């Protein structure tokens, strides 16, 4: 080989190495860019979730405060009931006293009239001397009768005066009692109005605060869902569309550590897909088997939407048993948060829609391979799937 050819060959080798180095750098930079984007999204998600946790704590404190307020309000209502009963009783008593006063005043008028008549009779009798009375009497017996009548009139006048005095005292006491009751009633009514105003103020304040927190939490949750959707798409672009290997206990699912209750039976690696906890059973709070696709999606819907997805049976039955609890579409119309159902096979399979891009959905699930494992979001076509929006 000539020196010139050797030099050209050496330059070609160096150019080839440089080209490979540049390609490697592009690959590394490109590969680093996607995870960096996904990481930034995760940072935003973490911050929003932290804010929501704080707001949930504030809401919890307000809920406790509301419980205290309810106790206070309950006591206020009891006091209000007592006051209303007292007011009602006072009104009844006032009416009774009013009628008694009317009767007493009528009796007083009667007694005054009797007093007048007796005084007149006493006056007339008083103009006759004992000698004249004796002389005008037919006999001693008649004289005695006149004397007794005279004494009786005196007694009657005394009794009438005593009764009038007693009636006047009673009327005075009754009128004072009525005035006292009216003052008490006015005070109780004022207190009643104050307590009602305080009750309404406390209720309104607490409800408004909780409504505001709920609104902020919902806004953050919507933003989190959108960031998670973007993150799913970023990760799918990075790792491709192949079905990822299962991850034991992945996806944040709370019961990924459930153990196989039928080791070595049919449908390996766990017979009848029965994972659970010895002494506690194999079914979750929604009635689905732990580590099964149905349990995962029910948990996911509850976590994201706060809705109970229970009693729908095997995955393949979900589109037909959901009824009014969800809207069902077939082959299209998927939305983030939907359950995506395949009715193929004995039990079918249900997945959770993490993102939507055209006619493609990105789904996460459990037990896709019959292994009770979590699989991260991956793209599949909408065609052939039922979508349930809860």
How are the SSEs placed, and which strands pair?
Elements lengths: L2 H124 L3 H7 L3 H100 L19 E2 L14 E2 L16 H13 L12 H4 L5 E4 L8 E4 L6 E9 L2 E7 L7 E8 L4 E4 L1
Antiparallel strand pairs: 1-2, 3-8, 4-5, 4-8, 5-6, 6-7
Helix pairs in contact: 1-3
Summarize the structure.
With 390 residues, this protein is α+β, with helices and mostly antiparallel strands.
Word description of this protein:
The protein is of the alpha+beta class and 390 residues long. It folds into two domains: 21-224, Helix Hairpins (Orthogonal Bundle), CATH 1.10.287; 244-389, endopeptidase domain like (from Nostoc punctiforme) (endopeptidase fold (from Nostoc punctiforme)). It contains five helices and eight strands; from the N terminus they run αααββααββββββ. It has helices spanning 3-126, 130-136, 140-239, 293-305, 318-321; strands spanning 259-260, 275-276, 327-330, 339-342, 349-357, 360-366, 374-381, 386-389. The strands form two sheets. It has a six-stranded antiparallel sheet. Strands 1-2 form a two-stranded antiparallel ribbon. Strand 6 (360-366) and strand 7 (374-381) form a beta hairpin. The longest helix has 124 residues, at 3-126.
